[in-house]
Fold this sequence. Notes:
Among the domains are: 2-43 and 53-70 and 104-178 and 279-343, FAD/NAD(P)-binding domain (3-Layer(bba) Sandwich), CATH 3.50.50.60; 344-466, no CATH class. Helices cover 40% and strands 25% of the residues. The protein is built from 16 helices and 16 strands. A 7-stranded mixed β-sheet has the order 6-5-12-13-14-11-15, sandwiched between helices. Strands 1-2-8-9-10 form a 5-stranded mixed β-barrel. It has a 3-stranded antiparallel β-sheet with strand order 3-7-4. A hairpin with a 2-residue loop joins strand 8 and strand 9 (139-147). Helix 7 packs antiparallel against helix 8 (328-341), helix 10 crosses helix 12 (394-413) and helix 14 packs across helix 15. It starts with a strand and ends with a helix. The site of flavin-adenine dinucleotide (FAD) has 37 residues, from helix 1, strand 2, strand 3, strand 8 and strand 15.
Amino acid sequence: MTTDKINYDVCIIGAGIAGATIAAYLAKQGKNIVIVERNLSERNVIIGELLQPGGVQRLQEMGFESFLDNIDAQPVYGYDMIFEERDYHIPYPNNNGEPSGYGFRNGAFLQNIRKYILAQDNITVIEARVTALIEKDNTVTGVQFLRKQVTDEEIIHADLTIVTDGPMSRFREQLSNPDKKVNGYFLGLLLKNCELPYPNHGHMVMGDHPPFVIYPVTTSAWRILIDFKGEKPPKFGPDFKKFLLETFEKFIPQSARASFVAAVEEGNFKMFPNHRLPAAPIKKAGAVLLGDSLNMRHPLTGGGMTATFADVMNLSENLETVKDFSDGKAVSKAVQKYYDTRHLGTQTTNILADGLYGVVYHPDLRRAFFEYVSRGGKYSEETIAILAGLNRNKKLLKKHFIGLASYGTKKKLQSANIKEMGDTYGMVKEAVRIITPLLLDEKPDMATRLVLKALAKGEAVVSDINFRI
Length: 469
Ligand SMILES: Cc1cc2nc3c(=O)[nH]c(=O)nc-3n(C[C@H](O)[C@H](O)[C@H](O)COP(=O)(O)OP(=O)(O)OC[C@H]3O[C@@H](n4cnc5c(N)ncnc54)[C@H](O)[C@@H]3O)c2cc1C
């Protein structure tokens, strides 16, 4: 085992979206950085291919909008919400030149960020797999790693280790109390050379079938992600293609059906688990979690990278206040401030992602959601601004969530059908069941926490929550 004599300010585990971006941003502060990534070649994945306008805004604020250049990234101007036979078009807010979103191949985008960090004098990039965190006196002092085709492990030391080893993180257990759940799988296919009802838009398709989303990722290809609910992935057996065609073809917009059939026949299936992981960090001197290793939400709303960039900025700006990185107390204080405040930048993205995922699986709530946003005006504009990551007002999100359940209730009560009227209680109960744990995960103040807990136990009613909203 060899030991590197250089003592870096920061060691980063993983040059994925979070790790590569924070390396780039901290390098601007003049920090001396080492980043260890197990595979530097371009990845071919179905994750992280739609960057919401809020994420684009964060890139601009960091001075990194050029990461979107020369990768055939497609501007995305809003969504077409498709419900049963109807659809409703919702543009992203475009006041004061707000940015649009972008669709791209994640591998190409990430290689752009990696190209940037490889060119920085104060960033050392090592291709190797990190095998352990090194600790001394209960403080993380660096990492142990193994390069490809080498048998000797090496050690590198740094004042702070940033763990960004992604959704399957090997190190999160040492730095948090994770309560990770798989709530389903996304099957990804590429729809080639086709049109969709709205060019340069996301399409969210809901109905009496598993939901799916479609957005452009290159000039000639759209990504479709189809949800498979449950803890176990579907099997790609001999009947899988037939099942896909029978279950989904009729719900694909007409203009893209032939491409869907071709993609299914081609059979280049990629599948990835969708996790829910509330952030639950524990204090550990010398180390911090960032990105999917710390916190994950459902990818239905494409919010992961937007949340990650918010965290990258928060952590970097707190670390910028530390003049001397060998001052362990000052570094720990900056890390703690990031953990204490990060929810302010990510909570609406998290709550909306898992909240909407719950809504689209409940027949009455998804109808209520579609009809609620189809009312236009603030109902669609404010909802899309939250989904875009441009509006991060939690009160507004709660207002719309309760608003859609109330709207659905009102519509049902107006119905002449007795059964429909009776179902209203079930719908409100389901809305509460969906939103309560999500709100509890995002650091509510003490009084709200008490109301939410009572609500979860059935000891309070929805109107009780209103006084906090
Ligand atoms: C199906 C799906 C679709 C998604 N779609 C979107 C979307 O459209 N828009 C969006 O914003 N978000 C989306 N997300 C979420 C988004 O992909 C993540 O939030 C984001 O990629 C998190 O970045 P990260 O750096 O934490 O992880 P990653 O980008 O996965 O990076 C982790 C890095 O760590 C490296 N690594 C792991 N272990 C080690 C080790 N031991 N040693 C060295 N290196 C290591 C890996 O090789 C990798 O490069 C999606 C997620 C899923 C599951």
